[in-house]
Structures are given as structure tokens and as C-alpha cells.
Amino acid sequence: MSRLEGSRRTGRGRGLAFQLALWLSLAVGFLTLGALLVQVFTKGFARVDGKLFTDPPSFDPLIAGARPAIFATLWLMGLVFLFAVPVGIGTAIYLEEYARKDRWYNRLLEVNIQNLAAVPSIVYGILGLAFLVRGLGLGRVVLAGGMILTLLVLPTVIIAAREALRAVPGSIREGAVALGATQWQVVWRQVLPAAVPGIATGSILALSRAIGETAPLIMVGAVTYISFNPSLLGPFTALPIQIYTWTNQPQEEFRVLAAAAIIVLLVILLVMNSFAIVIRNRYQKRW
Amino acid sequence: MATREATAPRAPTLRASRRYVGETLIKAALGLCALVSILTTVGIVVALLEPALEFFKEISILDFLTGTNWAPLFEPAHFGVVPLLVGTLLVTVWACIVCIPFGLGSAIYLSEYARPGTRKVLKPALELLAGIPTVVFGYFALTFVTPLLRDIGLNVEIFNALSAGLVMGVMLIPTVASLSEDAMTAVPQNLRDGAYALGATRLQVATRTVVPAAVSGIVASFVLGISRAVGETMIVLIAAGQQPQLTFDPRVGIETMTAFIAATGAGDVPRGTIEYKTIFAVGITLFAITLVLNMFSIRLVRRFREVYE
Q1: Do B149 and B252 fall within a single domain?
Q2: How many other C-beta atoms lie within 10 A of the C-beta of residue B151?
Q3: Interface test with chain A among B23, B35, B36, B282, by most A beta carbons within 10 Å
Q4: Distances (CA, A) of A143 to A16, A37, B22
Q5: What is the pLDDT of residues B27-76, one digit of tens each?
Q6: Which ipTM score applies to this complex?
Q7: How many domains in chain B?
């Protein structure tokens, strides 16, 4: 009897210790996130001023801004949205609504997409360097950057869109087919409208991943000194690249500038993510 | 025979065949979209393979894989990839020391301990970590963690593998946690109920019933974490330095495969030179390693999906 009690007491102690360890695990993530935000904001907040948005970068950190980089990031956002969303949704519709799962090529396609989602981003950069910049002869331009970021986030868009399509119940499709709709009419008039909130949320999240990516853009040659606004077929430097180049400078003033640019980037990401969450909460249908 | 069939009267239901053409076109267009991702993979393999093969014509693959001196831009040049592999391994190990226990701990808490309301708040909050761009983590490693390590008495260099590895580990906590949690949530409730009925405590249910039942998914999350660590570029490029030396000392600067590729790709290396080709030789090595890890992870995930869903 006493042994039983004893074991129960140690059991309770162990249970508590275990729960504490679990809390600690979560705390590691949150504390780091907190430290990161505090570090960036205390260092850079005072430097988020008009100059940062209106002036080009400079060798003098006190007058430098990030206007060309911010413009290029907006360009890249637009291009990725333009390319990745239609192709991603098209692929998702093909896989969910048309493809026969027992065919080898469709299974290959699925494994291929899962694998592409985990290919290191720098490898996409190599693809961009070899095919877009050198192979096609596009050069180190905004279009090449947008195309390579598109390929990078395409698997994410596809996976999100597939989940949204899968969440539409089969009875909707069956009802439409029973009324004589063709397969495309079912997809276009019934399934797709019902899946739009899910697809929009997934696409915005994918887009926010794209604008934070740095490594592939380094490979397509965005690490340059640019003082003018970018154009589609002109050289460019994006916001994350600007952060990287400023971080690389040894002077403290450039680190401050990097922190300020990080704040701008984080705010853009926060706005996009909140937008995605609002869409999801407001418009997502529960079946 | 053929002409007779062509002129034979058709049944009226076949009038719909006109619309069928449009449907086929749409299906073909959707198939073309799907083809983009196949072409991406083909493109990656071709882009890497062709210059890499040229590279291995000049430098034997054995020397490349076993050489312990990496100095491609020096005279005389050396092309032994081992220092880059060891650098990558070193950072990955330190990332795993952080992300495996803390990621798994977070997953167990979210899946087995947190109330639904708490979980609904904590899970997206943890995902915020995954949404921070890697360049920001690099900045944080260099300007916060490295000085912090010095303050607590570790004699680290400005660029060191430890700081990069630790920060990368924290970055990967959500990766490990979310996949592990998926696997644990997929464990049927009656396994837990059965264990409780036999008198198990919450701790025993979590560690002896749920974790073993979800082990393939949990291992898959570790493998995915390792693969991400191997392929991560910006943190190591900023915080771990660009000194390809063969060392297991985390306090000094090293160079990883990814950092080498990015640093060399950033410069305007003339096409066709041996320096240009090294990007691809290292790139294909990196791609091969992550491909094996990813396929392993995908297979494990499929296994736990098959068992419980």
C-alpha cells in the first residue's frame, strides 16, 4: 500500500516535471521571437523615417534609403501573384478534379510537388542563374527574379489550393452533375467559388513567403547598387537583399539601417498575413 | 469500312460532343499547368547536371568527394568538398540539438496537454516564427546571439557555426512541431482511452502510447527539419562566415555548401570557367542530399497516413 502511494507521488512529480519541460519547449520559440522583435525594433525604429522610403541607398548610411528595393519588392509581389496563382490553381484543379489517382504519371506528379516543396531555395537560385539569367539571356532583371520566386512558391500554392478544393463536399459536385453540368461547369460554377477563400488565404501566405526570400534572388544577381526605380527588364535589388547588404557592412549605422528595413519588411508581411486570416475567418464556409 | 462508319447516322445524344471539345481543351490547359512543376524538376536536374558533369571531367569525382582542402579561387586551386560538408553537418547538428527536443516538446504540449482554446492561440503564434524571413534570422544571429554568446563567456569568433546553428534550430521548431503534432493528432482517441483505463498517467499516455503510435510522422518531421537545415542559406551566409575549414569546433567561422553557392553566385563569375562550374558541382551534391532526405520523409508521412486515416 505504501509502495503504491509512493509510486503515485513520484508519478505526479514526474508528470509535473514533464509538463514544465513542455512549457519550456514552447517558451524557447516564443522567447526567441520576442527577443528578435525587441532587438529589431529598439535598434531600427527611429530610422524608419521618410528618407527610408523616398531615398536611394547610399555609401553614407545617414542619408541612405531603400526606395528602389521597396519598389522592386512590390514588382516581385505582382509578378509572383500573376504567374503563381493561375498556374497553381490550374494544377490543383487538375489533381483534385480531373486526374485519375491510379495512373502512374499522376502519382509521380504528386510526389514531384511534395519534393519540390522541400527543395532548398538556393537550388532554385541555381536554376534561375543557369536558365533564366544565362540560358535565356534575360540577364539579372526583375522578370527573372519574379519567375524564379514563382517556381519556388508554386508547390505551396498548389498544396493550399488542393486543400481548399478538397474541403468542398462531394455532394455539391454530385448535385451539379445530376443537373446536367459538364465537369468544367461543376468546377467553374460550383467548386471554385466555394473554394475561393481557402485558395486566397493559401496564395497570400505563399506570396508572403516569396517576398521574404533572399537566397534565390542573390543567385539571379540582385546584389547590386541600384539608385533608380526598377523596371520589368531592368536590374534590381529587393528589400531582403538590401537588408542582407546592409547587415554585411561592419559600421553600426548600416546595422541600424538594416533593422529599419527589417521593420518595413515585417510590417508588409504582417499586413499580408492579417489579410489572409481575415479572409479565412470571414468568408470560409463551414459545410 | 472507315468511310461507311464516318457517314453512318449518329444518335442525337452525341450532339454534346461539340461541348466536349471545350472540356478537353480545358483539361489539356490544366494538364499544362501541372506540367510546369514537372518541368521545374527536369529543369533543376538538367541545370545542375550539365555543368556539374563538365566539372567532373576536369576534377575527378573521387578527389572532389574525399579532398579535405576547399580553395577553388586560389592558385593552386583545391576542390575537396569535405570542409563544406563538415561545415554543413556542424551547423545542422547544432540546429537539431535545438529543434528536435523543443519542436517535439511543443508538439506534445499542443497535441496532448493544451486545451482546445489555448491550442487555437498557441499554434498560429508558433507559426509566426516560421513566417519570419531567413535573412532576418541571420541578422538576429549576427547582431544578438553572437554578442550574447560572448557575454556568457563563450569565446566565439564574430562569424561562428554555433550562433547560426542555434538560431536555425529555433527557426525550425515550428517545422518539427507542426508535422509531429499532425501525426500525434492522427492517433485514434481509443488508444489513449485504453491506456487511461489501464491506469496510465497523462505522462505515460503521452510518452508510451501516443509518441510510439505516431513515431513514423515524428521521425518524418525530424528528417524534414534536417533537410531544411542542410538547405538553409541566409543564416549561415550572414552569421557562420565564409571560411571553408575542416573543423568540428562550433566557435569558429566555417563555410557551408549553401553559403559557398550564394557567395560565389553573388559575384559575377564568368560562364564556362571552373569557378562557375563549382557552383553546380556543390549544388548537385546539396540537391542529392536533400532529395534523399525528402523522399525518406515523404515516405514516412505516407506510412502514418495509411495506418490511421
Answers
A1: yes
A2: 8
A3: B36
A4: 56, 32, 32
A5: 999 999 999 999 999 999 999 999 999 999 988 888 899 888 898 877 78
A6: 0.90
A7: 2
